[in-house]
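INPUT
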Amino acid sequence: MKKIILKFVFTLALPTFLVAQDNVYPVKTANDILIENATIHIGNGQVVEKGSVLVSKGKIVAVGVGIVASKSATIIDGSGKHLYPGLILSSSTLGLVEMGSGAGRPMNDASEIGEMNSNVRSIVAYNSDSKVINTLRSNGILLANVIPQGGTLAGLSTVVQLDAWNWEDAAYKMDAGVNFNMPELFNRPNQFAAMLGIQLQQNDPTKQALETIEKVKVFFREAKAYQAETKHEASNLKFEAVKGLFTKSQKLFINCNTVKQMLIAIDFVKEFGFSVVIIGGSDSWQIADLLQKNNIAVILGQQHSLPTLPDDDVDQPYKMATILQSKGVLFAINDEDTQNRGRNLPFNAGTAAAYGITKEEALSAITLNAAKILGIDNVTGSIEVGKDGNLILSEGDILDMRSSKVTTAIIQGRLISLDDKHKQLNERYKHKYGLK
Amino acid sequence: MKKIKILIGLLPILFFGNTVFSQQTFPVNGVAEPREGCYAFTNATIVQDGQSTLSNATLVIRSGKIISVGTGVTIPVDAVVVNCTGKYIYPSLIDIYSDYGVATPQRQQGGPTTAAAFFSQQQQAGSNTKGAFGWNQAIHSETDAVRLFVSDDAKAKPLRDLGFGTVLTHQKDGIARGTGSVVLLSGEKENLTFLKEKASAHYSFAKGTSSQSYPSSMMGSVALLRQTYLDAQWYKNKPSTEGINLSLQAWNENQSLPQFFEVTDKWGAVRADNIGDEFGVQYIIKGGTNEYQRIQEIAATKAAYILSLNFPQAQDVEDPNDARFIALNDMKHWELAPTNPAVFEKAAIPFCLTVADLRDLKQFWPNLRKAMEYGLSESKAFESLTKTPATWLGIFDKVGSIEAGKVANFLITSGPLFDERTSIHQNWVNGEKKSVKEDNWVDVKGTYDLTINLGGESTKYILDVKGTNAASVIGKDTLTAKFSHDGKMVKIGFDPSATKRRPNLPTGGDTARATQRPMGAMATAPSAGPSFRLSGVSNGNEWNGFGEDPTGAKLTWTASFVKASDVKATTPKKKDAPSVGKITYPFLAFGNEELPKQENLLFKNATVWTSEKAGKLENTDVLVKNGKIVQVGKNISDASARLIDATDKHLTAGIIDEHSHIASFSTNEGAQSVTSEVRIGDNINPDDINIYRQLSGGVTASHILHGSANTIGGQTQLIKMRWGVNDDQLKFKGWPGYIKFALGENVKRSSSTQGNTRYPDTRMGVEQVLTDAFTRAKEYAAALKGPDAKNVRRDLELDALVEILNNKRYITCHSYIQSEITAALRVADKLGFKINTFTHILEGYKVADKMKEHGATAATFSDWWAYKFEVQDAIPYNPTIMQRVGMNVVINSDDAEMARRLNQEAAKSIKYGGMGEEEALKMITINPAKAMHIEDKTGSIKVGKDADLVLWSYHPLSIYAKSLYTVVDGTIYFDREQDKKKREQVQVERNRLIQKMLSEKKSGMPVLPAQPSFQFINVCGDHGHSHGLLAIDLMDGN
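OUTPUT
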């Protein structure tokens, strides 16, 4: 079976047999897979040197040394390589936005009209044939949380696995996040006014924002009351959609950054008892203690970001993870850059490692801790027996671009193709110039 | 009712009829009433000017002029004598930067107020001004304040109340604003208010209400001014192709006047002065309030300045979450802005002060006193409001001091002008009295005998007057009275029963008891107390009047002055100048109080990545002296050098970013498709924290580009990252000029949701714009060499293109897809120019062979894609393919954040395509140096080159590498250890200023709600990067 795999890879590399990306398709069935002799990064901080992992029927069935596989198993030599759990992109618009805003509205399915859009579901618009998907897999990202963007309550997010024929195949954890874009509590000058130095008369931003936030609270109060009645004369789809928040089968993802906003976010824990996750949290390092105390997790915005003020330490965003780690806050690192579309996720984690936390802690922030935050840690996020076979094998340290080169990826036990549009165009033009 | 009507009917006549000296051409509706207005002000302290003060002197005026001033002056018999004992007389003040009486045109109705509205605006290529004027609506030199001026007493009065008598007024709108007039603040008939019809010519960088698209950037305004100077010169020969151009004609006529240039900040002042230097003009510069931050540069302009007193208000920082978003530089500016005039005085830079820009005119005196508290001398303050402006405007023979023959413009004050307790009683303008505050002309304070005559009986009280609104009546008891004295009318009210409710009040009744009226009769009065109500007239020391007692019985009364109250003469202690923080360079967090100095440096035992044929050298020393690399080798020693142990560390050449938009005030001049006349170098901003942040990422030089808004953009500027130096010192010396071109979606405005009306709208049009521009440039170049060369109009736009044709200026061309790349190459081939660099070039891998043949460099991103349609085929293998085909390949940032990690971006080509590590590093060192034609100066570690170096903590292509030292020209501009200290200093300084603002609030001063310090970041248009919470991305004119 080993031969077959080799042949498969070989075929992809041959320019004469170049296939269009549309022919990179999900794998149907999977044999048992044994990855041998790799440095295994479990995802929970532990590292096993020269270890093996056996995947059977889609699940991890053994982790350690001296594991023997059945004869039919595909054996992959991991010598000198590093094995990681599949990486998780915790917040993205993957499959909703094919190209950035410059490409116009047809390319964008992320923002619905309306303020309280709790009922819209990202998964139904998820394009499992997006050309972006395979470029993420190539860098080890096997799962992504797809979040709708429009309105104050933006709708329901779903975690997808990146090896699917259609969105129903892709759904990994459906509608599990209710997304709330908390308004900013200050006025942002618009570009035009800023350019001309015009001070526009604006309303009191704090008051306006607090009113909006109060509307959201009222929404949840009424939703709660609505859930209390067993039969409804008139159904309210928006209330129905957030049912799970009250039973903690859904989480409330609050998009916010400032201390004041995060203090308000804590309110949602206190009043409603929701599981709250902050997305962004650029000032979360200032109130890490408080977040930890209230069990609020953070999906950090871009690590590769400028500091907020000239006064901030030049590496403030880079070392944010270190501060949260030291205070015991559960956090995930993310890549929300719209110009490379999430594929630098491992390097955002690498930056956090360069500025304080250990490499294994940085890895957790894009694997196990991300899984915990998304509510999927029972099935993925670490290389542990019983979890899905979501694994990646890299030639070297996955967090450093100097050595990060994924050679094998497995989703739910399926050995997936690592071909993508970019590799194909690379082969096409290497062929043109006669480059080997 | 009839009477009222008549009064209203008379008002307009009264308004102008007040004038002492009526105009002879104007018929009189009534009886002529000639007056000469001869007055003598006696016994005054007369401050003639800053130099001489006369005590007990007399001032005589007649017909609006000063006749005589002095101590032994004969008072004409027909003079009205005003006794000014105890009073001071000063020349009235002059405001040199006013728009009094000259309305500013309103921005056009429905003008855009949102970004979306602005960017979707339709292009307005031409001027909306009708008539034989120039092409640009913002250049209206033909505007004359003298023709627009309308007297407005409602606006004049508040200025007079501050002490002003004369202003230079002009229309504050546009780039060339026309002329200003000197007018008197009499608020009367226009014909008689002018001191000088055309006193000044005015300019600025702000196009104001012009609705024309061009210029849409700071550098566009500079280019427009420069071109207009050239056009005006050319117009002097009356070129037939131009016909009549009233704007240029006026421009030329106005040149003989004093030239005023309004800017809003210190760099604007330097920028304006540079234009002046180029065309032999020395401007008088109307500054902002931050010149103190760069006083050396300001002094070097050799300009005279007009300074605003508009100092920032303290902010409300009580809530730490609000204070969090106020940047240190904003807090420091709040603290230091009031020092601005004093700093000018100390630097001996001539200046005037103005009320212009004040949020409220009432702030003038408090702010002026604040400036004095911060070190401005009284004599300088006085001069800057009298003699200096008068001298600059050539009107010192008329106003600015009190001398015989001058206009009778003067103030009568209760004391020294700059004393906080002093009131201006009267402001005489053109020989006419204008009341300011006369109720305290007579010091009413003192005791008076008050006699109330009621029913034939008179009762005596003592009236103790404490001020114009406070007095007590002392009879049996001391009663607090309702009192008012406005200089003419007196009102007194008192409740004789009030004392019952305040039994403990001390009584002074013993001193003044005559026939006692039994007060007990009123004992039953309700507590609100029926009162005596007296009303009368004051005639100095004797007052008399009429009134009613608490029962309503009519009475008459008199009061006569007995003695003044004892006034303790308190001279306010001269306060020491408040202690303030230090100025840093730049004026930002992480700035230095003193610039770092060049050092001799010896890096010992490093892994040296030479970016040369020598490759990577282990355990090697590098010696730096006088800013240059002088030795690379083993076992080097030099006693003069500071030793830096580089064991286990990596030394590379400094990173050169080929594509950036930091450190500039504007990026795009997008109003036209060809704007080769604009120059990024005209608007370099050294106060950009991103210089420091990028130093921390190892960047030592950065190419600041124009944006991608148009096919032929502006001239670019290469800078070295010398943190703290000024705009000129930032510039990389001795490099050839560059210019930005752009193709594709941005040029055709694809992202506009409202469509596009600016040519071109397709890549077909882009090719034609290029062809047309260079065809014109070639013909222009030929004409300049032809027989009629001296009559050829100098065209800055074509000049830059001719430089390209002559290989004196190089192109860096924003481009993405293979069709447009090939089209640009073919236009260049056909018209005989080279495209030096293709930047972005994400489909470069498709046509690498063609670009190589042309000799172009490819400057690109490592892994950007799918952010718009034209980058759908972008691949991260692009740099490797182009490099392997044989091109010079560069990785650049185009992004203030990514520029801090260019080493990592270069390293991605190791991952994608398997490029060698040394080759990868070259993409950010020697390759960009080659692309910029500066490879003989920097870009590699080689003896003789500039010491632009980075010492890395770790393998320089690893994500774990950090710059420990970033060195530019042998000067350490970033030192990771020093940086730790600076972080602490920033926090200490922040806290000091927050506490200071808090105490300002506690002391009862008004504070503004906290204002987040938004960070304006110039981007070229293609951005989705995170620039931080307070970032406002500016895509001007794109």
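end of record. Residues 863 and 876 of chain B are 4 Å apart (CA to CA).
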